[in-house]
Predict the structure of Magnesium transporter MgtE.
Amino acid sequence: MNHTQPQPIPTPIDDTIELVERHLSARDLPALTEQLGQLPVPDVVLAFERVSSKERAVLYRLLTKARALEVFELLDPTLQSDLLHGLQDAEVTRIFAELDPDDRAWLVDEVPAALATRLLRGLPEAERASTAALLGYPQGSVGRRMTPEYVSTRKSYTVAETLERVRAGLADAETVYTIPVLNDARRLVGITSLRELLGADSDALISTLMSDPHSAEAVEEAEIAARRVTDLTLLAMPIVDSEQRLVGMLTIDDAVRILEHEESEDAARQGGTEPLRRPYLSTPVFSLVKSRVVWLLVLAIGATLTVQVLEVFEATLEQVTVLALFVPLLIGTGGNTGNQAATTVTRALALGDVRPKDLMRVLTRELRTGATLGLMLGALGFGIASIAYSLQIGAVIGLTLLAICTVAAVVGGGMPLLARAVKVDPAVFSNPFISTFVDATGLIIYFMIARAVLGL
Amino acid sequence: MNHTQPQPIPTPIDDTIELVERHLSARDLPALTEQLGQLPVPDVVLAFERVSSKERAVLYRLLTKARALEVFELLDPTLQSDLLHGLQDAEVTRIFAELDPDDRAWLVDEVPAALATRLLRGLPEAERASTAALLGYPQGSVGRRMTPEYVSTRKSYTVAETLERVRAGLADAETVYTIPVLNDARRLVGITSLRELLGADSDALISTLMSDPHSAEAVEEAEIAARRVTDLTLLAMPIVDSEQRLVGMLTIDDAVRILEHEESEDAARQGGTEPLRRPYLSTPVFSLVKSRVVWLLVLAIGATLTVQVLEVFEATLEQVTVLALFVPLLIGTGGNTGNQAATTVTRALALGDVRPKDLMRVLTRELRTGATLGLMLGALGFGIASIAYSLQIGAVIGLTLLAICTVAAVVGGGMPLLARAVKVDPAVFSNPFISTFVDATGLIIYFMIARAVLGL
């Protein structure tokens, strides 16, 4: 007899799996995200049970925070630990770490806090960073620098219970001196310290010892969080997710390292070079050249402006060659005044003493400062130049110094704020940059005044 | 009847007292020091018992460390505590705080460690600094920044005993997490931490828990000690006297504050201004001017060099006015190259990556870096200038750029090291300073080459 193999009737879930698998193999993550968003949670769980552990990890990472939590709880325990390993899998983390920030737009949410910590714990620092990327903490965020190896306690625990937790945590915890206090929803509600625990009697409740916590969100810029740690002189600061759930701690020594790196970067930028990756003496000359050549070229090209300006006034120069003698002095002084203002304001920004919204206040202060400096130098310049050359030349030099110092101070003070306002590192408007800019402006001012005074 | 008052026969000790009192009223401290040095200890004690508590404090401070300890032990207890108060007396501290370092040469020794701590404890931070001066710790030394409020233990103590000391110290101690270990001579022999204590069983001996300590001498530069704390990421580091006796601790948050202050200072100096004492916006314009005007004047006066150089070459300028067009471009590029080198090397010095003895290595690296940059810019400059003007002008510009970049890099890289070698803050050879220096040199190079190439 002839038997025909009975065709299995495709069920909606089969289609789903098919779709999912097609998208997966095509690495079409955005499409997957959208599709998973539409599926009812139980179907998602079903889908999870049918795919490989790597694929499961990828899929999981595409769920919204709320669903991720639901799904995780519905998974059977073996699959849960399976999933955790999958999420730490080098290949899986790579898939996400390699995404550039824009593509991460659809990487909908952070991973639930409970998972985040479990994922990061026990990982060597290097892998931690890449895994943190997978958790949705952007490049340069404190989420990438925090440690998950901490000891926490609960409001309802006693001192004795907490000390037990501390003893248990001693082996792994990176910091045990600052102890974050959580409520039953794992939310950060307070902070206490080993010091306070030692002072209290052992059956006292933590809720009576804890004080209001300072904290930072995992997605915040690492530098800002680090600055908070050192400004408040904390030994460690809790890092939370968008729902105030504890995900890690930023220790003061990591904060110091973060800030030191920033300082080096600012210092380098101020000097118009890229920061070095290794100690000076172990940096190959080639890398030294690389760290400087780009800026040097940009500045040199900017400086050709001065050539063009001078060409415009070449006639004036030929008539009164003596004017050429003062060019380096005048633009030099302008550059110096600009640098002084820029340095002061840049540092003030780094320390948080000044904000972009203070622009007007800064400008008026620099205007007054620059004008005062200009008056002093101008008077001096007028005196010397009138004696050495003529009263007219003296007037030109004096007035130019006054004008240049004022302009330079305002430009130098304003640039860093504008940079910050447009989210550029203020230090990028480095001193050389400002000098070059002020050079051209200064020359124009100089020759305009000269023409007016000398009646050319 | 006539009675004649019987004259008391002057004993040697009376003379001593007289002498002492004369010197005291004359504030002739050096003479006092010498005299006290010759007296046998018992006589010193006698003298101490006869003078006022303020005078006693002054006298005491003039004893050598060894004698100071002897004398203190021989004094009767009431006088001992008297002396301690006398040494904290505002007027007494002022007498010594006001001495400039040279005069302090004869301020023979540090105060014995045991006393030092007792003196500093319980003082508000402000008075601590002035008292530390009295103890013989120079301006800017870590002795002025350390805290005396710490908890220490002994090799021979058990964990339980130490934890008791910690609990007892909780109220006052500024730091209880890092615990220095002393031997019976009060010398620092090890370090342990509250963390380790919690991990050990309560009857274990400290000697079995402690590890080798990192430390700094109280007279060491605060910045260097602070850098050690952050580099080794210690929470606190023991500060000892010249005999390894514990006098205080430097906590990481104080270390961070010290370094932050240094950073601000360096940043300011790099920009050729004095650091501000208060936040930018709350600094009066007048102070802003003050922080800048001196440097600006110095640099302006330095810049008159360029005027003189140009005067020398005025004839050449009149013949070929086009040469004037490139002056700002050329000296600007020189200044930038110099700044880049100076910034990199200054930062390397601050981080301890480079030492003055590395001068030759730095110079050769900068020579090669500068030459390479010069070749690149020179080639570019030659190309552009030959097209825009003439082959000859192109040659002049190209060669000048090559020469200037090389010189500037070497000068910029060398200056900070020379500064450090002669114990001047490297950041003082600020970028503006180097620009000005390079400006003059650059002009000479430029016109020499121009004359040679153009055969003037």
Q: What stands out?
A: Strands of chain B lie at 153-154, 178-182, 188-193, 216-217, 236-240, 246-251. Chain B touches chain A through 95 residues (CB under 8 Å). Residues 288-454 of chain B form a domain with the Tetracycline Repressor; domain 2 fold (CATH 1.10.357.20).
